[in-house]
Amino acid sequence: MINKQLKYIFDNSYEGVYIIDKYRKIIYWNPIGEKLSGYTVSEVVGSYCHDNILDHIDQCGMNLCKDGCPLDAVLKDGIIREAKVFLKHKNGYRVPINVRGIPFKNDKNEIIGAIEFFNETSEREIVLEKIKNLESLAFLDHLTQLPNRRYLENFIKIKSEEYLLNNQSFGIVFMDVDHFKSVNETYGHKIGDLVLETISKTFLNNLRKNDVIGRWGGEEFAGIFSVKNIKELSIVSEKLRNIVENTEIVYKDKKLKVTISIGATFINNKNDVLGIIENADKLMYESKRKGRNCITIG
Asked: What is the distance between the alpha carbons of residues 198 and 192, in angstroms, rounded to a whole number?
């Protein structure tokens, strides 16, 4: 179905590329696809989209491989489609990608398959470079490779000063891994550490360059986001809750899923640094009381 010339072009593309036939069987997978997803050619080629190996979800957590697949729609009507989705890396964490699906036609202009081009949309390289510089300043948490509490407290202080001087608004999100003690007791601390590492990779892949997420302590994380209002903060918080819920912790033959409880608060004139931290923490525990895996904003 794919000739040598096309294969050469796709093999050397800067985007991930895969091709499906009219039955949604994956017949080609390029090297960048391997790099972005962690899945090799032998693991992907021969499977079907609906086998869900790539496990694409949208921001609301809908599984697109089973329902609402843009590439399946392209197969049916030949209309080029684009979408923003979250791909599941082989190691379980989520990677935000842009996908573009186009029809694959034969000489008779008949649709015989579809091609998807995809590339990462995160600002991960910029974020990673910033975090790398924290290590020498003792601002790095070595387990998660995220900023530590000392850095977060300093960053919140700076953001608060910017708000007072220039009215640059922001929000704080506190996140706690649900039932983490049970994970440690059931599977051991090694798996517990892997849970924290995997969630941290999902966070890193989904950060904008001006935002920060770090480890506050134990299984608790804190994020500082440049947002204009509570509505934007709510959208950011729901996205984080969703992608963590759809993150997989992979260890040997085990595949675990965890959730987070979130407390989020928006800066205002009534809150000093200590006040905004205490409010986010209080709201997070309110989410715990409400049943976990939810958001409380105030």
From this structure: 10
**Beta strands 260-266 and 295-297, pairing class:** parallel
Q: Within a 10 A sphere around the Cβ of 243, how many other Cβ atoms?
A: 24
Domain check: are 161 and 181 in the same one? Answer: yes
In this structure, the number of other CB atoms found within 10 A of the CB of residue 184 comes to 16
Ranges 29-33, 98-102, 270-274: which has the least confidence: 270-274
Q: What angle do CA 175, 281, 149 make, to 5 degrees?
A: 70
Q: What is the CATH number of the domain that holds 260?
A: 3.30.70.270
Backbone angles phi, psi at 81, to 5 degrees: -130, 150
Same domain, residue pair 112 and 166: no
How many independent structural domains does the chain possess?
A: 2
* pLDDT score of 136: 66
81 with 13, same domain?
yes
